[in-house]
Amino acid sequence: MEITVDQMYNIENKGHEMGFLKKFMMENAGAAAVRRLLEKIDVESKNILIFAGLGNNGGDGLVMARHLAGYNAKVTVMLLGSPEKIKTEESNWNWSILQKMSSVKLMSGDSFEFNFKPDVIIDGILGTGISGDIREPYASAINFINEANCYKFAVDVPSGLDPQTGETANIYAKSDMTVTFHKMKQGIPKRKDLTGELYAEKIGIPPEAEVGIL
Ligand SMILES: NC(=O)C1=CN([C@@H]2O[C@H](COP(=O)(O)OP(=O)(O)OC[C@H]3O[C@@H](n4cnc5c(N)ncnc54)[C@H](O)[C@@H]3O)[C@@H](O)[C@H]2O)[C@@H](O)CC1
Ligand SMILES: [K+]
Which residues are (6S)-NADPHX-binding (predicted)? Predict the structure, then answer.
């Protein structure tokens, strides 16, 4: 069953109100995404670049960074903006854990340059919160992904693809694999040419959180 982006936000909020906090959803999302990636790539000693936006799509990417470090990948996180501007408590919580991990290289700001060639890029730039034309530095990150010659993994939806309508913004990323969460959003499967292999993974939200919404 496919659901709308509004239904997803309502289910998320209801689950949170039930006490299954968003930080746990984010943890399960990042963990499920890493499990799917591991089916394709042996990440040990691989250079993994994670682009993280300032919203919760980025937060999922931060969770992935921690899990991938546990599999001995060489992880670099590029936060697209200033850490003080991270929007949500759950993303902030994950950023502060990464700050205590010397096994993950943290970069942040409005521009970037890397002294390594990534084997995998994780697109945690934009998810269901997308609106309007893609602004900088997100636009440059999406262009970087599309120009790179490596495996590309999209968190929830390739950035620039509207998960509700299936329409693309002025700039959009193309992935080899996309893992969306809880249930498939209506717009995503319309663009399998951008998602690559596509999965919807459960993230522990109680089914009761759907009551009255679906
Ligand atoms: N809904 C759910 O149940 C869950 C959602 N999760 C993740 O949370 C994501 C949604 O998080 P958010 O609502 O924080 O939204 P996003 O993280 O998708 O994006 C919001 C951020 O992007 C900026 N933005 C929006 N449009 C832009 C544009 N065109 N150019 C540049 N910046 C733009 C906004 O200013 C905001 O900072 C999902 O895609 C998913 O990855 C997960 O943590 C698991 C649970
Ligand atoms: K994304």
Answer: 56-60, 127-133, 138, 156
Question: Which ligand 1 atom is nearest residue 22's CA?
Answer: 45
26 lines ligand 1 (CB under 6 A): yes
The CATH number covering residue 114 comes to: 3.40.50.10260
**Backbone φ and ψ of 142, nearest 5°:** -65, -40
User: Which among 36, 90, 130 is the best mutation to test ligand 1's pocket, defined by most ligand atoms within 8 Å of the CB?
Assistant: 130
Interface predicted TM-score (ipTM) of this complex, two decimals: 0.97
The domain in which residue 159 lies consists of 5-210
Q: What's the structural domain count of the chain?
A: 1
Kindly state if the Cβ of 125 falls inside 6 Å of ligand 1.
no
Contact 66, 99 (CB under 8 A): no
Ligand 2 centroid to Cα of residue 179, in Å, is 9
63-106 pLDDT, tens digit per residue, is: 999 999 999 999 999 999 999 999 899 999 999 999 999 999 99
Residue 155 CA: which ligand 1 atom is closest? 41
What interhelical angle do 89-98 and 56-70 show, nearest 10? 30
Q: What is the pLDDT of residues 169-204, one digit of tens each?
A: 999 999 999 999 999 999 999 999 999 999 999 999
Tokens standing for residue 202: 């459960």
R_g (Cα) of the chain, nearest Å? 16
